Amino acid sequence: MGAYKYVEELWKKKQSDVLRFLLRVRCWEYRQLPGIIRLTGPSRPDKARMLGYKAKQGFVIYRVRVRRGGRKKPVSKGIVYGKPVRQGITQLKPTRNLKSVAEERAGRKLGGLRVLNSYWVNQDSTYKYFEIILVDPHHTAIRKDARINWIVNPVHKHRELRGLTSTGKKYRGLRHKGHATNKLRPSRRATWKRNNSLSLKRYR
Question: Structure pTM?
Answer without folding.
Answer: 0.91
